[in-house]
Amino acid sequence: MLTGAPSSHMSSSVSSSDRIFPPSRFGSFESPGIGASSSFSWHGADMNEYDETDLFSISWNQDYSCFAAGTSHGFHIYTCEPFKETFRRELKNGGFKFVEMLFCCNILALVGAAANSNYPPNKVLIWDDHQSRFIGEFTFRSEVHGVKLRRDRIVIVLKHKIYVHNFKDLKLLHQIETLANPRGLCCLSHHPNTFALACPGLQKGQVRVEHFGLDVTKFINAHDSEIACFTLTMDGLLLATASVKGTLIRIFNTMDGSRLQEVRRGIHSAEINSIALSPKVQWLAASSDKGTVHIFSLKVRVSGEDSITHPNSPQGPAPFHQNSSTSVDPFVSPNTGANPISLLYCMRGILPKYFSSESSFAQFHLPGNTQFIVAFGSLNSVMIVGMDGSFYRCSFDPVHGGEMVQQEYVRFVNLKKSQDKYKPVISSQ
């Protein structure tokens, strides 16, 4: 592991193809023929034929319909509803520490593991599974701590700097300086008409939000302690954060930096591994090293279904609905007829004290010695993926809350006994 401060010098190379091929759905993935790729060898998706492996990382795709697992032999891709291994690619030597999907298409970003000399941890490779070849790469003088994808951008996270590249031609568009960021914290919005990026700021407890297109930078002093985890809504208008203390999770308006709500995971310190927001921002889920996934009811709403679906739910006073046009319309391209994010309503500066530090609405208990990432599924369900190779699907009662009910459990990979010698990495959007 490289510990020196990363250099700002970076080189990239592009294959002879100067464009990204139109994404294929999983059903269109092509198995490479013999000799088609010197990098990967194809293995079928029979879950009963797994060899023992080391699990380096797990990460959701952008809409939480799939997740990727980076292993000591390559990577596996899984769909979640229904749960199924879709495909895997395996190397003759070494594996991948980071595997970032681009929704459900054929493009992935890969970062090698420390033990892999062919694909080192200071290089980002863009893999096109449709063509069965790498179509671009970025090489740095120090270790890559994370990579994020949008349909139009590639974002690479180093310890002190973030690079934003154009996806079409791989040109460097932006460089962002950050506080030391060994966790590789960075998240993006994924609405086609907005581009927001959240990353650590230059001070402890601070989150920087870049609204590209608007040329707006907002620094949010989210916590007194170091930031441990955060996530954005799909449109980038809301930010949820947690510090290394792990007791409080806060939700902010990214346009003006105002705090909208605060919820309490517990009174004792914990490491929060992931935070997820439901698609209509009615619920927040958080996982921690205490072995409990907590669901919180949010007072920030979108208009429509979620605001009326559960009128008897113990939500407290009705949320204040502000016309969103003053703060949201600039995000939306005037050339598009669709304006879904203009439906968002936020409370601004009206939070009474009894809204602060609310306890969780529903809970699910897990083994406490494993890292988990969470995401919302359909029909009031939560999906949980663990670094122990486990997948859970649980349901919660949207009216009464309480203990969640386990609906599904799958052991998706068998781990080697030597797993403990590797430091696992988990990533959420």
UniProtKB/TrEMBL annotation:
UniProt record similarity statement: Belongs to the WD repeat PROPPIN family.
Keywords, sorted A to Z: Repeat, WD repeat
Originating organism: Lupinus luteus
Subcellular location: Preautophagosomal structure membrane
Membrane topology, from the record: Peripheral membrane protein
Region of interest: Disordered: 306-331
Annotated SUPFAM superfamilies: WD40 repeat-like
Gene Ontology, cellular component aspect: phagophore assembly site membrane
Compositional bias per record (Polar residues), positions renumbered to this chain: 309-331
Name of the protein: Autophagy-related protein 18c
Main location, first listed in the record: membrane
